[in-house]
Amino acid sequence: MIGALPPVHASSPEAGWSVDPTLVAAALLVSLLYLRRAGRLGRSGRGVPLWRQVSFHAGVAIALLALISPLDTIGESGLFSVHMLQHIALGEIAPLFILVGLSGPILRPLLAWPWVRRLRRLMHPLVALPLWALNLYLWHLPAFYEAALEHPALHAFEHGCFFTAGLVMWGALLEPLPGPGWFGSAQKAAYVLVVRALGCAILGNIFIWAGTPFYPFYAPGEREWGIAALTDQQVGGAVMFIWGALITVCLFSWLFLRWVREAELRQSLLEGGAEPRVATRAARYGRRPPAQQLPAPPARRPPARPAPPPSP
């Protein structure tokens, strides 16, 4: 009997994988371009730390897996909760890892293009936060959500919006490029609170406590998987809520350690004679200011000659 079963390919619905050669090729190209840039920086004496490189490639891999693994095939027509996992992987986890792997020297070739430099404005916290929140809530409205599920092109556009919004939202916090001067550690902590409240606490609780399912599109898949529609929706809300709680704890721990490091470096620079504004900016990005911004060391005076002995 087993020998009579049809073979299951990696890209078949039975296996749960939907391997798209275009997506795989795009992910490989992005990783190769990153490796090329990191290699050039290394040869010029400005090597990219290994942890940055690992983080970037992990982010690319997470984004690819979110689009070709069972997260995509099951979430697209089977279960809302699995689709929620896919959106978190694609819209939050992958952009987070990718941005951790980026820095100013890595991005310098892209910044040579004027239109890329103009896009930096999207990572201003007062721009990034409302754009990200609008994208999140708009796509979870039943009309838009189910329209994306029914039309593949719109679904691909939705995924692109989630990924881009994640880059913008995390970019304002992680600052691979310098952000506004007023956006220090305390302001970043408030930013994290607002993001996690909007993205996980409020929307997650809506899915958990709503008395009716929002997306009838999943009804056939939920019956096939043997799970009630309302339960599936509640699980999806719980996934969102738990992810938000975990990442909030991690971010607040990171911000606290960052604040301690900044305070120590700033105090060291102030004691060295740096101006308060220069010391604050340098400590924020973990580097010492250029020599021309530090006061010149005081000129050394010649030792005083000993007084002649008194005459007899």
Describe, in plain words, how this protein is organized in 3D.
With 312 residues, the protein is mainly alpha-helical. It has one domain. 69% of the residues lie in helices and 0% in strands. It has 13 helices and no strands. Helix 2 runs antiparallel to helix 4, helix 7 runs antiparallel to helix 9 and helix 10 runs antiparallel to helix 12. It is elongated, with a radius of gyration of 26 Å. The chain starts with 20 loop residues before the first helix and ends in a 28-residue tail after the last helix. The N terminus is likely disordered.
What is the overall silhouette?
elongated
The H/E string reads HHHHHHHHHHHHH
Individual helix count = 13
Radius of gyration (Å): 26 Å
Category by helix and strand content: mainly alpha
Q: Tally the beta strands.
A: 0
Number of domains: 1
Tell me the strand percentage band.
Answer: under 5%
Distance between the termini: 126 Å
The percentage helix is 55-70%
Mean pLDDT, as a whole number?
86
Query: Residue ranges: pLDDT <50 for 5 or more in a row?
Result: 1-15
Main beta-sheet annotation = none
List the helices and strands and how they pair.
Layout: H1 21-43, H2 50-68, H3 70-77, H4 80-100, H5 104-111, H6 114-119, H7 125-139, H8 142-150, H9 152-174, H10 185-209, H11 219-225, H12 229-271, H13 276-284
Helix pairs in contact: 1-2, 2-3, 2-4, 3-4, 4-9, 4-12, 7-9, 7-10, 8-9, 10-12, 12-13
Descriptive keywords:
312 residues, mainly alpha, 13 helices, 69% helix, 0% strand, elongated, disordered N terminus
